[in-house]
């Protein structure tokens, strides 16, 4: 039987209070806040962060396949699995595919995992609702990741799963649409309700299970209310329904149900039964049973950890700028050149997995990779040395108001790693007033910029804040 | 025994320098012609007397033809050199060695830059294609790393540090106010400097050198020929340049309170010129004050101040016109302006004027030994140039 071995999540640091959107347009707003990707984040960078959280303490070289599920990939043509595999330093012959377009591609990817392999599933989404619309308020950004396999390390067995395809045009975005469109909400919720009734009860019966034996139902449907109606219709009480994270994250596309599942696992005890119901033109249904192994799972940030660390003062104007929804005066600096593809090609291993070199002669770690050692000048005596996950401190810094940045001032720091090595890089998710010499930072995977249609991914430093440290 | 060096082998017999300014009405060609012909006239020579030339420019033109075209030099060798902000010094250095070798008797070193045609503030240099992962921070940002690191190491509060940096800018503006060729010829109150808009915190706009267009030129001959041209030539005592391996980017022992290239290049120059105690023996210096904390660190790197004491010397006025060792008497990059390729030669121009007693209101009392220091790059990795020049033969 296959099951979940590990999980992880990522929620961007910036949160937009919905009332700020309402205030801007002079109309009513939903309550709560939504998580919004920073200008340097997208579905790939968030997915990598969630996977790093998931793989904390595991051997990424043992992973056989990686599925990246998203409706907001950076490219229509050109995959991102190779980017992700390099960033996570997965083995070279890892299989991988992108599960795109469907809002249940995250759960479908989990179902596609082979029992006798280790599969890394990453569900990540960063959708943009059209300004003034319901979707703008409702959508949020985030990612979840699961390591699926079998054996004694499984923390939740997938007892059974079922899928149904049920074509309906309820929520869609064409190749040329900038924003998601919706049919009248009643259509989607009615079809969803019908499908849940037809599928869930027989599914539970088949597994000799009833609604009251389920500890949490992770149910993701269209709109903000349909999931409660549908859950009630098949016999679930309100306290059994997993918090849909609407008030804290928003609807994170195909990552919505996976993020809720991470939340549920964070609270789950051995023996708990979890039911997942994810909707989009049909349903994916999964019954999970939590095992004793969950008590041995290493601590991680997860949904809980990332929820507590936030900047909830993000302005609506910043959000509009970061999403390119507002045409603004360009900075009075030369435009960013597109990166050189051959230079990118030569540097992928180094730059995506953040691997420098360490001198065999004197032991000095250095980034980027050097052929002649900076310390002892010995030639070609280097081993690869990865800096990801290492603690580091700010040695000195500047707030650059002149540099072109979507969120000026650009914070640039000289970062010294506690175990040796230095990098000069941008500091992200940090207020200019926060930065100081000696600040503890860690590296985070980001999309530096897009130029010439090319998304350039690399690492930045971010503050380690007390609440999120693991 | 160390290398022989160039001490007293060559001399400068003519110099020229345009005003450094936003020359909206002058082209690169105009600036080159103006600086070169001022130098020819000053040396009392004809343009055709020049046997070879070195042109320094970072971004305003390629190849020797950038000079031979506007000057209509008649097929003499012209070499274009580039060493970032030390470009002008590099042109001078190469010209000096060519004369010292005996290959030529009389040569021209000239530097030019036209920064104000780009449409952007500050310096924007073309970059080779790259993977684009290096953070694209500005020039002031890279030098502003020095300030918090220095303050932290020597226990200065942000307020104390601010006062020290402002005093450096204030001094350079005061000196520039006495200089008709400076870009900015006004005194600026300390308070205005301290409260200027942020560019790369903690540095404000008044911590930054002036972005200017300009050109400067020197005519160089061997020492034994110098008196054929004038009775008061300037003698070259030492030339030194150090290119760094990038310690600041890679090594934790680089602590941003010292730029090793400066230390190495100045020590080499002192050896060559026989200087044991720079603070006492040097009469005046023009140093690379691209940003205020750079000048602070330079004082210590060049041995003008003890480590950690430079800030006190600043507050005690040591480097002001009436002080023990005047630094940047012409206003420096801060006030005179910084057209990249011209700056190194502009520094030498001030030494030359001071030795000849032609420095007007900022004239120092009979200076004998001068130092110029010119830096190209960032604190993390740079080329650092130091020259020692003198009024008299040793």
TrEMBL record, chain A:
Record keywords: Transferase
Gene Ontology molecular-function annotations: acyltransferase activity
InterPro entries associated with the record: ACP_syn_III_C (IPR013747), ChsH2_C (IPR002878), ChsH2_Znr (IPR022002), NA-bd_OB-fold (IPR012340), Thioester_dehydratase-like (IPR052513), Thiolase-like (IPR016039)
ChsH2 C-terminal OB-fold domain boundaries: 387-446
CDD domains from the UniProt entry: init_cond_enzymes
Pfam family, one: OB_ChsH2_C
Domain Beta-ketoacyl-[acyl-carrier-protein] synthase III C-terminal, first and last residues per copy: 204-284
SUPFAM superfamilies: Nucleic acid-binding proteins, Thiolase-like
Domain ChsH2 rubredoxin-like zinc ribbon: 354-378
Record-given protein name: Hydroxymethylglutaryl-CoA synthase family protein
Automatic annotation (TrEMBL), chain B:
UniProt-listed PANTHER family: ACETYL-COA C-ACETYLTRANSFERASE (PTHR42870), NON-SPECIFIC LIPID-TRANSFER PROTEIN-LIKE 2 (PTHR42870:SF1)
Domain of life: Bacteria
Protein name as annotated: Acetyl-CoA acetyltransferase
Pfam family, one: Thiolase_C_1
Alphabetically ordered keywords of this record: Transferase
GO MF annotation terms: acyltransferase activity, transferring groups other than amino-acyl groups
Every Thiolase C-terminal domain range: 252-384
Cross-referenced CDD domains: SCP-x_thiolase
Chain ranges of the Thiolase N-terminal domain: 11-222
Lineage: Bacteria, Bacillati, Bacillota, Bacilli, Bacillales
